[in-house]
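Q: I have 169 residues here and want to know how they pack in 3D. Can you give me a structure?
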Amino acid sequence: MVVKVAQLMSQEAIGSIPIIENKKTKKLVGIVTDRDLALKIVAEGRDAKTTKVDSVMTRKVVSCHAEDDLQVALDAMSTHQLRRIPVVDDNDQILGIIAQADVATRIDQPEKVAELVKDISQSKIKSLNGPAMKWLDPRRFSLKQITIVVGLLLIVALVIVLTLVATGA
């Protein structure tokens, strides 16, 4: 059930859980992110205790291979606007996850890190029309402001999920 995934995310302070076929094969079949929980459980008013993981997981997982050049992972993150992607072997067996933060803290190429953050964080909104919509325009805010707001929204969503789980609601 989804509640177990949320609890694991909370305990391990992580934002995604790869979903495997079984413990023996460890074949990656999906991924659940904190965003999935916020949008598919909280926003839809679903019960985390009774909702099955496979109903909220992303099945078409963008991944890279352990032998891939780092640039392959960075390109996949940028293209699909993902902050983290699983690393798999040739049999789609999960080996780990590479995150934007891993890249930022482990490579000494500030320009590459800045470009990655920009590409991942760019809004998919192409144009906003009308004065009432101008406040939504992401160009009005700095990347730091947007990151803080998104982070706070994710924290609030997880707190709501965990509160609902704890109270049995």
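Q: Anything worth noting?
A: The chain is about 45% helix and 15% strand. The two ends are 15 Å apart (CA to CA).
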